[in-house]
Amino acid sequence: MSDAGSELTLWKRMRQGGRTDRSPLGMWFWDIDRVVLLLTLLLMGVGLVAVGSASPSAAARYSDEHRHIPPLFYLQWQILWVCVSLPVMLVVSMLSVVAARRMAIIGTVICLAMLIAVPFLGVEKNGATRWLNFGVSLVQPSEFLKPCFIVTCAWLLSMKVRDEALPVTVITGAMTALVGLLLMMQPDFGQTIVFAAVWFALLMIAGTPPKVMAGLIALAPAGILAAYFFYGTARARIDAFLFPSAEGEGGSDHFQTNAAHDTITAGGWRGTGPGGGTMKFRLPEGHTDYIFSVIGEEFGLVACMIIAMLFLAIVVRVFVKLLDERDEFRLFAAAGLATQFGVQSLISMSVNTGLAPSKGMTLPFISYGGSSMIALSIGMGLLLAFTRRNPFVTRSPYIARWSGE
Fold it and tell me: What is the pLDDT of residues 291-336, one digit of tens each?
């Protein structure tokens, strides 16, 4: 029997044997990347435990004589956000590639309009205006824009495969610059870095000419210098990171960095145990931006390393699976979403460990927050949708023709 006949026979037996469920849910279960899904659910579980540990300190910090916040207030809300986010992620992961792409493009337009409205209609918290008040909850448009923007850029870059004359690099660069400008007005320097880093990674994956990439790399130092001299928020963060003894604008950032370092190292390798931490009560935003430090104090540095390995495992798993991907759009979209996930995780953990300047950046699926949790679930759902496939169909042109997939 020929190789083609052997592959077809194997595929027919597989479809008639263990995969007899032809319902949409059954097909989704067999085609989804169950390893990535399991690791994501594990991160959500870790996040509930971590928010439970950080909730009492956050409640104590934000309680006053006019408002008493229960110790587990933030944990209760996080459970609600997970209950909302998990179905969202699963539903999005069931979308076809075409439907997922359309949803992302429409989402980009809507979220970009919301981002433009933030400076005029936004709500200020902790000196930054990043949220819109929709009555039921505050919504951070930049969080929802990230996954949609990445998929839209991937779609535009994939069009160049069909027509080399299309100026997609310029178009996506202009889009990134517009988003960066709007974010810096809030100000949100951390998210600006994430958008720029993902755009740069997408250009590399799309095979942008080396001269163009070299030019962008050469512009990076100039961009950092311009941000330092003309953007007060960036200057304050960089000064606090490079010159810890300096006073002035960066003083609060220096305090946060010191408090995060003291907290994450207070528990040693094994930690003080759940609820046993005391340094977390000195830590600002311990349930959001600095939750990694709370984990370090109460569960130890070993737990921090395990969590870092979980993030790395998801990113590596996605990129390994994309090695034989033939569809340019799916390749760019999935790689961009995985890059965003990895970059955001890396920045958050680096800030907590003192390896990067202080910036507001949540740890994916672990930090408290409704906008962050739902937006990340949408992004992971899109990632699962673009990596969903039958491995035999993907690898064999004979089976693809026979099955019509």
Answer: 999 999 999 999 999 999 999 999 999 999 998 888 999 999 999 9
Find where tokens 């023709």 sit.
Answer: 401
pTM comes to 0.86
* Alpha-carbon dihedral 223, 229, 234, 237, rounded to 10 degrees: 130
Helix locations, 17-140, DSSP H: 24-31, 34-62, 73-93, 97-121
For 348, phi and psi rounded to 5 degrees? -60, -45
The dihedral formed by the CA atoms of 356, 362, 366 and 369, expressed in degrees to the nearest 10: 160
Partners of 129 in the β-ladder: 124
Q: How many CB atoms lie within 10 A of CB 76?
A: 12
Average model confidence (pLDDT) across the chain: 84
Q: Is the peptide bond before 284 cis (omega within 30 degrees of 0)?
A: no
Helix or strand run (H / E) with residue 176: helix 168-184
For residue 64, CA distances in Å to 61, 77, 208 come to 8, 20, 55
Q: Which helix (H) or strand (E) holds 131?
A: strand 128-133
